Amino acid sequence: MPGTDRVSEAPRTDEGHGPAGLLHRIRANPSGRVALKVGIGTAGGLVLAIGVAMIPLPGPGWAIVILGLAILALEFAWARHALEFTKRHVQSWTHWVGRQSLPLRLLIGLVGLLFVAAVVWESVRLSFGVDLAALAWGWLGGS
Q1: Which of 4, 33, 88, 94 stands 20 to 30 A from 11 (CA)?
Q2: pTM for this structure?
Q3: CA triplet 66, 69, 72: central angle to 5 degrees?
Q4: DSSP code of residue 125
Q5: Mean pLDDT of all residues belonging to the chain
Q6: By the 8 A CB rule, do 126 and 118 touch?
Q7: In the chain, where are the structural domains located?
Q8: Alpha-carbon distance 110 to 45, whole Å?
Q9: Contact status, residue 74 vs residue 23, Cβ threshold 8 Å
Q10: What pLDDT does 122 receive?
């Protein structure tokens, strides 16, 4: 047919669109496949290392570790498996906590809060040489 656009006659697939399509096009080229693996490995490894370093510090250390695993999971099966393992166990933990009585959930929250407070106290003490507990005790009128 004259005037018919041959591209529009082809069946549409989403394979070439969006981020998944971009990754598919890069993987289709042998050198692109290697570059993608190296780039994803480097970026994901860096994010993962930063997250691991941040775990003992106050802040989103575990969230950054999971983000690093998600980046690595784009190219590496072991990271996909580790991410699925993590998701499965976090979900089972949150579902288990959700099924517990209110007093037990409050106790779990209190233990978590005390743990975070201890990590913050120790981080400030080691980093800046300031004992927050002694400082607070002095403000409260203790010796």
Answers
A1: 33
A2: 0.63
A3: 155
A4: H
A5: 84
A6: no
A7: 1-99, 101-143
A8: 34
A9: yes
A10: 85
Contacts 24+ apart (CB under 8 A), 117-125: 119/56, 119/57, 119/58, 120/58, 123/56, 123/57, 123/58
With vertex at residue 127, the alpha carbon angle to CA 49 and CA 136, rounded to the nearest 5 degrees, is: 130
What does the CA dihedral 126, 132, 133, 139 come to, rounded to 10 degrees? 160
Q: Give the tens place of pLDDT for each residue, 55-88.
A: 877 778 889 999 999 999 999 999 999 999 999 9
SS3 76: coil
Residue the block writes with tokens 């089972």: 92
pLDDT above 60 (res 9): no
Are the beta carbons of 66 and 83 closer than 8 angstroms? Answer: yes
